[in-house]
Amino acid sequence: MTSNRSTIVQIVARIAMIVLFAASTSIHAGPAFDRKILPGQQQGAVQPAEKRADKRKPDRILPRAPRIDARAAASRVRKSYQDHRVLAINLIDGQGPPVYRVKTLSDKGVVRFVYVDGINGEVFE
To answer: Do 36 and 52 form a contact (C-beta atoms < 8 A)?
Structure first.
């Protein structure tokens, strides 16, 4: 008799757990009534960031990309310093505008660093 009784208690406990679980999921699965649905939008649809109402600015500003490439910068240095050879060219990534650092060698054996503005192509020392 005790074995029968414990089986009945286990079955009743399982049924109670199933009923409680089903009731709790139906409570939490209700629709969100606090969201406004715009015309032409389905409920639960997600909008891209461009169409959202909050037009927040990005957290940081991305560095500006150079308008001229390394070859164009080297070409401008060759025109400005005709008695120099271009040995190396590197893009300096800093907080300011993009600048190329160009290492040159003169006919007399003097190494000089020249800089080229990555936006407008201006050559300076």
So the answer is: no
Domains and CATH numbers, the chain: 2-51 (no CATH), 70-124 (3.10.450)
Q: Would you give the distance in Å from CA 21 to the centre of its chain?
A: 41
Angular region, 70: left φ>0, alpha ψ -120 to 50, beta rest: alpha
Give the model confidence (pLDDT) of 71-117 as tens digits: 999 999 999 999 999 999 999 977 788 999 999 999 999 999 999 99
Angle 29-34-39 from CA coordinates, rounded to 5°: 105
CA atoms within a 13 Å half-sphere pointing along the CA-CB vector of 59: 0
What predicted TM-score, i.e. pTM, was given to this entire model?
0.50
C-alpha distance from residue 123 to each of 69, 82, 88 (Å): 14, 13, 15
